[in-house]
Amino acid sequence: MKESKIVALALCAASLVGGGAYAFISAYQKDTTPPVLSAEKAEVTASIEATDEELKNGVVAVDKKDGNVSGSVMIDNIKKKEDGSGDFDITYVGFDHSSNLGKLTRTLHYTDYESPKFELSDALRFPAGKQTNLLSYFSATDCIDGNITPFISIGGDTAVLDKKPQQGFYDCTVSVTNSVGDTVTLPIQVEVYDGNAARPQINLSSYLVYLQAGSEFDPNSYLTQIKEYDKVKQVVFSENVADPDNQISITQIYVESGVDIYTPGVYTVSYLYTSPASGLDCTAKLIVVVE
């Protein structure tokens, strides 16, 4: 795809040259017929690591006046199809000696492509009356572009969140688009709580996970700690605990999971804990993306 970056420059240069030479060629018949691009196959299958030369293999350009100008063929762009197939349109351009431009588009199937993925650094829970910066909690990586975090955008109830929201739950979305036009949108729910310092807190090992359809999934395995006041208790997966001052049983935490590990989609696991000492409760949510 390196060549796509210079196609625009080539077009610009051709325009300048054409403009400067117009006075000298006006007396002659101009060549305005572009070369014809063709390919051995209507589809190409390749790895995301394929070079431009590999992606151009089998594409030729023939001009009525100049003959074979296949050496001018470049990759203009690669964009994801909108038909839901997961494939891409790859567009080639070729020039004749008069800078006329011909184009060809064919289907590109990547054998190892994956859509961009998000990472979530912490729980989306914030005290009431405090402005939040949701973007700081997310990052995104892409198999082609690498780190695409700067291109993340937030939608939904962001106007409410920017204005120091009151206690409640707010539905938002996180979106990102990579260089081949693949847009991924993740629905999220933000909790705004009353800000009571005595309220306990559930800590998870992850707050967003991606799982392959049919793989094993245990929502309890993501529970790590309960924090209450300045005390942190480790979650143990048994009814009885050996050290009640530093441990808490999994049976004291209510877990609600609607994850269908066999059906691709975005799911949420909710965790609820109520402190026996203060009577205050807290929640935590795990976003599960089944692919």
List keywords for this structure.
single chain; 291 residues; mainly beta; Immunoglobulin-like; 2 domains; 4-stranded mixed β-sheet; 3 helices; 22 strands; 44% strand; elongated
Account of the protein in words:
It is a single chain. By secondary structure, this protein is mostly beta strands. The protein has two domains: 4-110, Immunoglobulin-like (Sandwich); 117-290, Sandwich (Immunoglobulin-like). Helix content is 11%, strand content 44%. The protein has helices spanning 4-25, 52-56, 158-161; strands at 36-39, 43-46, 59-63, 67-68, 74-80, 88-95, 101-110, 117-120, 125-127, 138-142, 146-147, 153-156, 168-177, 183-193, 201-204, 208-211, 223-228, 231-236, 247-249, 253-257, 265-274, 281-290. The protein has a four-stranded mixed sheet with strand order 2-7-6-5. A hairpin with a 2-residue loop joins strand 17 and strand 18. The longest helix has 22 residues, at 4-25. The two termini are 27 Å apart. Residues 16-27 have low confidence and may be disordered.
